[in-house]
Amino acid sequence: MKNSIFRTICAVALTVFVSGCKDNEFLDEHPKYFYTIDNVFSNQDQVDQALVNCYNKIRYLHSMGGEGREMFVFRCQNGTDMYDVSPIRKNYQFNDYSNLNPERPEYKYIFGFWYRMISYANLALYGANLDGIEWDSEASRRYIIAQAHFFRAWAYKNLGECFGGVFIVPDLCFEPKFDFERVSRSETYSYAISELECCIDDFPETHPEKIRIVKGAALHTLAALYLDLGIALEEEGRASEAKDAWEKSVKYASDVIGDGIHSLMTQRFGTRFADGPHFYYASNSRDKTEEHRYEKAGVTIEGNVYWDMFQRGNVAFQDGNKEALWVIHCDLDAYVEQDKGSRLNYSRSFSPTARDAVPGILEGLMEDVGGRGVTWVFPTEYARSLIYEGKWGEGDIRNSDAVFRKTFLGNVKGNSYYGKLIPWSVLYRLGQSESSRINAYTQMFPISCKVASDVYPDDDFGGNKSYLYRDDYVIRLAETYLIRAEAYMRVGDNANAAKDINVVRSRAQCKYLVSEADINLDLILDERARELIYEEYRWNTLLRMGGTVAVDRIRQYAYWDYPRSGSMKNFSVWPIPQSVIDTNKDVKIDQNEGW
């Protein structure tokens, strides 16, 4: 009886409920306890979280938060003129063109990464333009919108440089779309330029938070985009428009260089002012004692301003580094408190594996061998020595032992080199078998202060000297000078191009300063290599040059012979991933030439 009454009450209640609704309104969800696209944004901080996601993704990519093979292509620049892989990493080879095709996962990941960035920026713009959002001020709202536009511009810049013309996605997509249409490479750059020019005055000149985009970073990016645009226009036969673009590149770069806020660091500064790196010839922590210091063996390595720029606590503008335009923020305390992305995966990825290259002479995982390196990539002969040959290396502190260390003392007890300088003929195992020499050359090389340190602060937290816990540059002013120099060169003003390059070379204390007669594209690329090794995205640099620049440089400087074989393609962009072409079923997408 009770069950019957209960069923009757429920039936009546359901009938009244349904009859009181218009159509199927009762089926509409109005969630109060979880977020959807309709209720996620109500105040400024929630909109800003979409931007924080963009910053985090940049940190993940730049600091190599993952170790998938795609990271070693984009961030390590595997396969360019500057970096290659040793025999122990042959599965990660990226200049064997018999194995490179549009189905490679590296292309798919990198292409997709930048479109994910665009979707995050679109989400921030969507939220910023909703009614009813609580804002601290109109200036705060405009700054959030400007940052979202910056990330879209940054994504399209990278897509244009690597893949050429791509798809413009100006809004969030709320349903599947299969009819995207490609625009040209020049149109891709033009769209990115419009993203920044519409809001350039909404960026602050400085900001208390290290990671935030400031006006100098946006102006630098515009200078780089106009440089790219000019090259693309020239390839399209639009020489007059190309010249206009390069002149705008000069203008925007000059705005940064002359802003009165940023400047190159030319004097010693920061947390280790008047100090230098200190190493121990010790293959284990027990032997890391005072008597094993390099200084005790008569080897003193002098610090310099360039070394200062890559020390913990010295990288960000907020720390007194006037050269920093945009950095990613990494911090040991944050890492210990579970922010596992707050580290640079550099020593592990870029340092030598001396223990395998010269066993019995130089072993261990200590600071003297660059920490716990596993050598995902190694610098080619071009990057480690050719760019410093003859007059090009005289006085250059970027090639000093503090910055690019070539001095190693034997650290294995009982060996004749213990505590003594090891000649490079021994480190390279000259006179031994071919396989021994190849393994030595590809796993033992000079160690950059950008990727390794004489101090690893994670020792007290169970670390193993694989990572650095400092901020890192995404953009710094030295590159702005090199961008302007290239733009000057392209409009035929070699005198001013030489002046800009010499500003960078003078800071590096180079004895030889370039003349107008020295100026050409190879010099620009060489100076970028000297200044920006382990910093720039070298694939972007080579591919944005157009023509066969990337192919020619890789053929000339690659360590392995693959690029010099008949399988080497002539290309100026990477292929559009085949999965992208296949998925866009309603509009045909043509593959890039050569792929």
Quick description:
By secondary structure, the protein is mainly alpha-helical. It has helices at residues 2-19, 44-62, 69-74, 105-128, 138-163, 185-197, 215-235, 239-257, 305-308, 332-336, 347-350, 354-357, 381-384, 424-427, 434-443, 477-490, 494-507, 521-532, 538-544, 549-557, 578-583, and strands at residues 83-84, 324-328, 378-379, 404-405, 447-448, 472-476.
Could you explain the architecture of this structure?
The protein has helices spanning 2-19, 44-62, 69-74, 105-128, 138-163, 185-197, 215-235, 239-257, 305-308, 332-336, 347-350, 354-357, 381-384, 424-427, 434-443, 477-490, 494-507, 521-532, 538-544, 549-557, 578-583, and strands spanning 83-84, 324-328, 378-379, 404-405, 447-448, 472-476. With 595 residues, the protein is mainly alpha-helical. The longest helix is centred in the first third of the chain and has 26 residues, at 138-163. The radius of gyration is 27 Å and the shape is globular. The N and C termini lie far apart (77 Å). The relative contact order is 0.13.
